[in-house]
Amino acid sequence: MTVIIIQVMRFGIYSSVDDSLKKATKNIDDYVNMAMVRNTMVSDAMDEDSEGSPFKIKPDGQMAANTDTILYDKKHNVVNNINAFSPLYRIHPKLHNLGAIAEQRAKNIYGQTEKYRTVTVKVDNAFYPQVKFATIVINTTQLEEANQRYVTIIISVMIVFWLISVIASVYLAKWSRRPILENYEKQKSFVENASHELRTPLAVLQNRLESLFRKPEATILESSESIASSLEEVRNMRMLTTNLLNLARRDDGIEPEITEVNPSFFDDTFKNYAMIAQESGKTLHITNKVSRQIKTDKTLLKQLMTILFDNAVKYTDQDGEIWIDVKTTDRSLILSVADNGQGISDTDKKRIFDRFYRVDKARTRQKGGFGLGLSLAKQITDSLKGSIIVKDKKPQGAIFEVRLAASK
Ligand code: ADP
User: Which spans in 215-336 are helix H?
Assistant: First the structure.
């Protein structure tokens, strides 16, 4: 691209110079007359009114300041007056190539090289029969220098833009690869975590089944502990694989089925929660301020509330207390599930929504947790265009606050 621009510029500069030279060859007599006038130094001769004088003709009215004419006799001697210090003396008439434009160089008295475009033509002038050849010379040194300056500027600008585009493309390539890499990392850790979670129940199962084999004559009753424990692990694995399947399916994005949900839905759900709380020896305080119909995905909402309620039950002590508040604003549904359990440290708050993250791995596994509940809750709130946050409850415990889009 740069080369093309530079070539076009060079061509543009020289084409106008060459045009002037071609015009000069067509009006060569005018140039000869003009050169000879200078020669004789007769200023009066320039008078346009002097009839019959060759000097009345202006050379095309376009003779540029940097144009010179060198006239030669038949022996190729210069016949017109040229400044003694001018490098024009070093210009050679191209007699073997008459009419063709040539490029020539000559050193001036300061030792600098001047550049010229020249054309030599045969002359047959009635006023100056001694003049046999004329070379029209245009000094292109300044044009060349200006051209060189433009070339330098263009090349510098091109290099700067080239560097900017390289840096931008490297940055964009990295930027566009980031979500793919992130997804890849997520998938990898998902598979790693899932296999890790399955390893423990499988090891327990293997252990228990092997112990059954070691006592082949034992009755089912005698082996009931091993069988019960194996069954428990199988149940755990089923739950885990179901959760994993749900998560994997929903990774492609949950498609909520928005329907109208009546306020009675909350009352019914909370009745069930009250029963579970009672069975677990917890006190449940409910504040239901939903007084209008809302539009949301009923199944997802129930799943979300159950995850939070389940955790509140799991992570409070024997006679713990749980508070569920739900209310509507003009456009949202606000749900808060609080408990006076062990609470969540600030570092854990940042990670509990990650898949498989459990604060106390050993303890939560006893409680049947895989660290998937809150990541599912987050997925659900995202799909329902909402948010979920966790806060401390004073003096102790945790509050999960959910805000969902729930228009009328
Ligand atoms: P899990 O199935 O292990 O409960 P979750 O994703 O639901 O997985 O929760 C992740 C972790 O967050 C849990 O292991 C637990 O340590 C912590 N957590 C969740 N809810 C509460 C709560 N209400 N109080 C204290 N800790 C909680």
Answer: 224-251, 264-279, 298-314
